[in-house]
Amino acid sequence: MARPDRPLIVVTASDAATRPDPDAAVRRQQRYVDALTRHGAEAVLVHPAIDAATRAEALATMDGLLLSGGPDIAPERYGRRRLPTDVVDEARDALEAEAWAAAAARALPVLGICRGFQAINVFSGGTLIQHVDGHGGHDGHDGPEAGHPLRVEPGTRLARILFPTNVRGGVVEVNSAHHQGVGSADLAGGLVANARAVSRAGELVEGLETSDGRFVLGMQCHPERSESTPQVFERLFAFFVDAARGPASRR
Predict the structure, then answer these.
(1) What is the average pLDDT score of the chain?
(2) Three-class SS of the chain
(3) Is 221 known to be catalytic?
(4) Architecture of domain 8-250
């Protein structure tokens, strides 16, 4: 178990050995770990190939959960048929469903990034746009990032984190590495859109959070990629780690 001042955060990921470029997958996964550790957390990567006992121990002792980027979620999980553009990892889906349930059972903070943002919506009962023309695919690249403006909604938890002196929120330029998305009609009940962006599929929800006060927050962009992310997003990781420290009674 992590020290109270260094919360233990589980980072779910795909088994790097199953990805097209395993070395690049490891580098991408390490960015999540680095983003958490530089703000005082102890991070542990959990992927489908880890043995059941190690997985169970990590989920039982975690203080927070980060659902990272990766392949598409199987559309059967949100009531859709599979399309040729879908590249799924069903073992990852099962792992994250288990991790999500474990975090919910103890009301632990959850941060979802890219696929993880979409997973929060799906696990909460929402759906996805399965393909957005003109967008990158499957979190599979390791080179220069495309980008687009992101409008942060005023009055949301995200706005308070990123712009503590500006109640009206703001617009930031973020990276773009996804080919699926969440439209307004896809957002699950109990979730609130905290950021939006325009696309060829219309306006997309690109940030979400819960309406009940629990720290559950998702971002479609990749804030762990600091070279293509505004510095203000370091505050998001800092707030998440602080939320994972939580009340002592939770441990």
Answers:
(1) 92
(2) CCCCCCCEEEEECCCHHHCCCHHHHHHHHHHHHHHHHCCCCEEEEECCCCCHHHHHHHHHHCCEEEECCCCECCHHHHCCCCCCCCCECHHHHHHHHHHHHHHHHCCCCEEEECHHHHHHHHHCCCCCECCCCCCCCCCCCCCCCEEEEEEECCCCHHHHHHCCCCCCCEEEEEEECCCCEEEHHHCCCCEEEEEEECCCCCCEEEEEEECCCCCEEEECCCCCCHHHCCHHHHHHHHHHHHHHHCCHHHC
(3) no
(4) 3-Layer(aba) Sandwich (3.40)
